[in-house]
Amino acid sequence: MTNVWPATIVQTCIIHLIRNTFRLTSRKYWDELKHDIKPIYTAVNAQAARAAFEDLAEKWGGRYPAVIRLWDNAWAEFIPFLDYDVEIRKVICSTNAIESLNARYRRAIKARGHFPNELAALKCLYLVTRSLDPTGAGRTRWTMRWKPALNAFAITFSDRFPAAETY
């Protein structure tokens, strides 16, 4: 991915990382474990997250070494998440919305089989995207929910975000 888009920041889905953590543990420890992993993904920076991870490893490493290995293997893709403001973190902590959209794209393309040209394929994807909110009624809710994140994106990525340009 970075060969095609060199400015890309690769980040793992935090929600999936947390879910996988609980899949590897006994239900009776979930509340205690939830309390112990929260300081990792809510840390102010990578150093604080690493310190919280070390505490987690010390406490749970003997009982659940697979959980420690899971977080350790994902660490390089996890820490870019910590560089963002809280508003951006709320938006990018999960890839569920992107995965849902990709599933709809795959379903639409599979149903049609083939396209005469690239423009026809793009039109199909455009129509699938538009069908998510055909009346535009959800746009108001979307705008209000995303305003803090959009402002944070405009500041963080001012060189790549068109809304950050001054007029």
UniProtKB/TrEMBL annotation:
It comes from the Bacteria. Keywords: DNA recombination, DNA-binding, Transposable element, Transposition. The keyword DNA-binding applies. InterPro entries: Transposase_mutator. Required for the transposition of the insertion element. Belongs to the transposase mutator family. This is Mutator family transposase.
